[in-house]
């Protein structure tokens, strides 16, 4: 693979040493071109090509479905993960399954938990063990009232990557719903919803989807949709047999059987067209190659951090639990000061839960990591000098 050529597709590398992809990945030039074309079409032709654009985004559902090992009927796109989880919270409440609880992880990003807490659903949180969530510890929290387990595939603070297959198998045996937020993993780290017995999967695409704030992928299994009615509906949810728009009033209607029932209303076709291009772009590189590259960059980063005696908070001993996120602690120096120092050197990482989160991507190279480590060592030295 010519990774330096791929690096050229990302102008961000000329402007900054960028380790903020877990906040949002920048667009490669190819995606930007397509999004500009899509908006130019809107500028020049208005709504004339609406149906054409709609068909293109329909194709996207098929592409995403085959990546997840399911059918397009089970996929739709929602504005964000918070809304997806809110739909679940409402569905659970409406189902009359009371009393029930939902098991989740203590470190979850709040879009996985606030929607349930807001609806007064009893939440049981698993404590992290050295930043890991062993499947056994999750299963130990489950009781006879547990309706669902909600977990991230990759934890946003530490990058811990859950063993979805193992957890899914255990939950299936106990007949507990398995809800996965794959935002910090997919599409760079694959997910097989069938193989992992996932009932619902979400993925906010702005993190690793290379197409900006596009929305969240929302997968629901046919069994889930049969068991839980959609708690809200809009005009696009209605299964209109002979027309495009359900115009009747006080006339019975039914919703789509497919995941289309969750669409409710119109959505941003232009950025979804960008997402389709981004997926094609990544597919051309090859998802296997991408995984290998991220592991290679991770190996290099971890080795350099260890050599510099910088504390790694992320669990990095097992490669299957690693992702494209490694978090560190500069103690006894202050992490916020370290981040400001990095920024003064035009190096961008993030503060998450008081840690420094380093998120590397396919456009990063070993030189970027050397720059980061060099600056952290400099900071450590200057900070010690300041203190003494
Ligand atoms: C794991 C995870 N899920 C979801 C989100 C975003 O949630 P939403 O799509 O509701 O903005 C983030 C970060 O912003 C995240 O790290």
Set out the fold topology:
Elements: H1 3-7, H2 12-15, E1 17-18, H3 29-45, H4 50-68, E2 75-78, H5 81-94, E3 101-105, H6 114-118, E4 122-126, H7 135-141, E5 146-152, H8 164-173, E6 177-181, E7 200-204, E8 216-220, H9 222-227, H10 269-285, H11 287-307, E9 311-312, E10 325-329, H12 335-344, E11 347-348, E12 350-352, E13 355-359, H13 366-387
Parallel strand pairs: 1-11, 3-4, 3-5, 5-6, 6-7
Antiparallel strand pairs: 2-8, 7-8, 9-10, 10-13, 12-13
Describe the fold and architecture.
This protein is an alpha/beta fold. The chain has two domains: 3-22 and 286-387, Aspartate Aminotransferase, domain 1, CATH 3.90.1150.10; 31-282, Aspartate Aminotransferase, domain 2, CATH 3.40.640.10. Helix content is 40%, strand content 14%. The chain is built from 13 helices and 13 strands. The protein has helices spanning 3-7, 12-15, 29-45, 50-68, 81-94, 114-118, 135-141, 164-173, 222-227, 269-285, 287-307, 335-344, 366-387; strands at 17-18, 75-78, 101-105, 122-126, 146-152, 177-181, 200-204, 216-220, 311-312, 325-329, 347-348, 350-352, 355-359. The strands form three sheets. The protein has a seven-stranded mixed β-sheet, with helices on both faces. The protein has a four-stranded antiparallel β-sheet with strand order 9-10-13-12, with helices on one face. Strand 5 (146-152), helix 8 and strand 6 (177-181) form a beta-alpha-beta unit. Helix 3 (29-45) runs antiparallel to helix 10, helix 4 crosses helix 10 (269-285) and helix 11 (287-307) runs parallel beside helix 13. The longest helix is centred in the C-terminal third of the chain and has 22 residues, at 366-387. The protein is globular and about 75 Å long. The mean pLDDT is 96. The structure holds pyridoxal-5'-phosphate (PLP). The site of pyridoxal-5'-phosphate has 12 residues, from helix 5.
């Amino acid at each position: 693979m010519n990774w330096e050529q791929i690096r050229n597709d990302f102008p961000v590398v000329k402007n900054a040493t960028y380790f903020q992809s877990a906040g949002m990945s920048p667009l490669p030039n190819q995606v930007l071109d397509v999004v500009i074309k899509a908006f130019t079409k809107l500028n020049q032709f208005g709504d004339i090509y609406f149906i054409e654009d709609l068909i293109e985004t329909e194709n996207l559902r098929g592409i995403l479905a085959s990546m997840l090992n399911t059918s397009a009927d089970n996929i739709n796109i929602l504005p964000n993960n918070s809304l997806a989880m809110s739909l679940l919270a409402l569905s659970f409440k409406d189902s009359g399954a009371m009393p029930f609880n939902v098991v989740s992880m203590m470190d979850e990003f709040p879009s996985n938990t606030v929607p349930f807490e807001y609806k007064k659903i009893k939440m049981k949180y698993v404590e992290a063990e050295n930043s890991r969530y062993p499947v056994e510890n999750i299963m130990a929290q489950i009781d006879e009232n547990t309706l669902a387990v909600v977990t991230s595939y990759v934890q946003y603070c530490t990058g811990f990557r859950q063993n979805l297959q193992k957890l899914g198998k255990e939950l299936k045996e106990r007949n507990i719903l398995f809800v996965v937020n794959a935002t910090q993993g997919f599409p760079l780290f694959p997910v097989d919803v069938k193989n992992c017995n996932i009932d619902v999967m979400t993925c906010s695409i702005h993190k690793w989807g290379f197409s900006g704030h596009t929305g969240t992928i929302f997968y629901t299994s046919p069994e889930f949709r049969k068991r839980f009615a959609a708690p809200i509906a809009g005009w696009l949810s209605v299964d209109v047999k002979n027309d495009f728009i359900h115009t009747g009033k006080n006339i019975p209607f039914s919703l789509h059987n497919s995941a289309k029932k969750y669409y409710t209303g119109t959505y941003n076709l232009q950025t979804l067209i960008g997402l389709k291009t981004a997926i094609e772009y990544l597919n051309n590189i090859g998802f296997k190659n991408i995984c290998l590259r991220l592991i290679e960059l991770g190996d290099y980063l971890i080795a350099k951090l260890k050599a510099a005696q910088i504390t790694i908070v992320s669990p990095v001993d097992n490669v299957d639990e690693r992702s494209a996120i490694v978090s560190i602690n500069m103690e006894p120096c202050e992490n916020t000061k370290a981040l400001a120092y990095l920024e003064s050197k035009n190096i961008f990482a993030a503060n998450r839960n008081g840690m420094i989160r380093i998120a590397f991507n396919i456009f990063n190279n070993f030189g970027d990591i050397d720059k980061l480590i060099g600056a952290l060592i400099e900071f450590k030295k200057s900070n010690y000098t300041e203190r003494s």
